[in-house]
Write a structure and sequence with these properties.
This protein is α/β, with parallel strands linked by helices. It is built from 4 helices and 9 strands; from the N terminus they run ββααβαββββαββ.
Length: 175
């Protein structure tokens, strides 16, 4: 069964700060069939691309990325906030709609020959996705696609990724 994903995403006004409408995916995660449908759609979009690793950003991206990695039979790579990983790391700073931040990844998490898909819950300003792509490439992986459950088109995040030459897949677009 195919679900209308947008029916399972709740708007929360003024979170995390006044003027922001937060897109809460908790209802989607709480519905087993809708969650399975989302993972199946993501998997269909990259089947046949030879994906060896799924790369996801802390923390909501981990939910979708790890489930997708399982379905694809691929490894899972975590992009974490600085200071959270116990091994040698590579760091990438980026801007979000709220602040400036950074990711770190273990230096041995990706290698030349890995074909990766980036997975996150929301494509907003594009900063998080761009950082994930650049960090993956710095570790010599080939990025086959960047995938999102929801794209906030009014923030024009996709346009900030155009020059990277990566396929962008969004299951739902919101203007």
């Amino acid at each position: 069964m195919t679900f209308r994903i947008e029916d399972y995403i709740r708007d929360v006004p003024d979170f995390p700060k006044k003027g922001v409408v937060f897109k809460d995916i908790s209802p989607l995660l709480g519905n087993a069939e809708a969650f399975k449908d989302v993972i199946d759609r993501l998997a269909r979009a990259v089947r046949g691309k030879g994906i060896t690793k799924v790369v996801s950003a802390e923390s909501r991206g981990f939910i979708f990325g790890s489930a997708l990695a399982y379905v694809l039979g691929a490894g899972f790579v975590m992009l974490r906030k600085p200071g959270k990983l116990p091994w040698k790391t590579e760091k990438q700073e980026f801007k979000t709609e709220y602040s400036t931040d950074a990711f770190e990844v273990h230096t041995d998490a990706l290698k030349k020959g890995d074909i990766v898909v980036i997975v996150d819950d929301v494509l907003a300003t594009g900063g998080t996705a761009r950082a994930a792509i650049e960090l993956s490439r710095r570790l010599k992986a080939r990025v086959a696609a960047a995938m999102f459950i929801l794209e906030l088109e009014f923030l024009k995040g996709r346009s900030k990724l155009d020059d990277l030459g990566v396929e962008i897949v969004s299951l739902v677009k919101s203007s």
